[in-house]
Amino acid sequence: MGNKIVVGISDLKVAKDPDTIISYALGSCVGICLYDKVNKVAGLSHILLPYSDASKEISNPMKFADTAIEILVRQMVQAGGKQTFLTAKIAGGANMFGWEGETVGDKNVTSVCNELKRLRIPLLASDVGLNYGRTVSIDATDGSVTIKALTKDSKVI
Predict the structure, then answer these.
(1) 12, 22, 26, 29: which one is catalytic?
(2) Is 29 designated active site?
(3) What is the pLDDT along the chain (157 residues), one digit of tens a residue?
């Protein structure tokens, strides 16, 4: 059993086998889990907002989907991973307040999917939307992503 590495809001981390990365309290935020199964390098980004160009405050590029995922990929490559081996799984993007129409969570999911597509990283699985928060973790040993929520059973994607 390796170390448990915690990722906060607007943060990201990279780990190697046998470590695990975890991020708590994904509401409308999205957790992006990337994995290189050949080199056993994992990464997790907890983004808060979809687009950096829509914000006046961009001092932390890890806050936005359109900038954070690229940083995560770069850090994973520096840790020994290869971009061509990366796959993705995502969680979060909830509508926590029951608002009508497109929500921040929806926009976050769309932005994440667009960025993954642009970087040619296949999205293998997702647990997004609905109206509840999630905790997400990725195991660098096998790339399994575990999702926990207060009122739901844990699931592995």
Answers:
(1) 29
(2) yes
(3) 799 999 999 999 999 999 999 999 999 999 999 999 999 999 999 999 998 886 666 678 999 999 999 999 999 999 999 999 999 999 999 998 777 878 899 999 999 999 999 999 999 999 999 999 999 999 999 999 999 998 888 999 9
The neighbour count for residue 138, using CB atoms within 10 Å, is: 29
Whether this prediction's pTM lies above 0.90 is answered by yes
**100-136 CB burial, b ≥16 within 10 A, e <16:** eeebbbbbbbbbbbebbeeeebeeeebbbeeeebbbb
Domains of the chain: 4-156 (3.30.1330.200)
Tokens 């994992």 appear where?
42
Residue 66: what are its φ and ψ, rounded to 5°? -75, -10
**Geometric angle at alpha carbon 85, from 84 and 90, rounded to 5°:** 105
**Rounded to 5 degrees, what are φ and ψ at 119?**
-85, 0
| Greatest Cα-to-Cα distance within the chain, rounded to the nearest angstrom | 44
